[in-house]
């Protein structure tokens, strides 16, 4: 059975509420989506739905923009962080496979 996302990851917040929470205009939020900085889901009627994690991300993006960081730079940083996270996960998986293969257990 698939694990359901945590409340923080659940995409349930409308763009209007996100705008109120972040202080960003709906146009700014859509722009950040166009720049591939945030990825809302769409309801069956096509309305954007965001998570609390998206709200936090949008606030972080807005803060960086106020500091003069360009959206391209923000996106590149996001890509680098995602690659680092994937590398750590691969390393953990490999370590787990090796431990399982050779019967190594974690010391407690």
Main traits of this protein?
108 residues, mainly alpha, 3-stranded antiparallel β-sheet, 4 helices, 59% helix, DNA binding, transcription, MerR_fam, DNA-binding, transcription regulation
Write up what this structure looks like:
The protein has 108 residues and is mainly alpha-helical. It has 2 domains: 1-69, Multidrug-efflux Transporter Regulator, Chain: A, Domain 2 (Orthogonal Bundle); 70-107. The protein has 4 helices and 3 strands.
Unreliable spans are none
Q: Strand percentage, roughly?
A: 5-15%
Radius of gyration: 18 Å
Distance between the termini: 30 Å
What does the overall shape look like?
extended
Write the layout of secondary structure elements.
Elements: E1 13-14, H1 15-22, H2 26-34, E2 41-42, E3 48-50, H3 52-66, H4 71-102
Antiparallel strand pairs: 1-3, 2-3
Short recap of the structure:
The chain is mostly helical and 108 residues long.
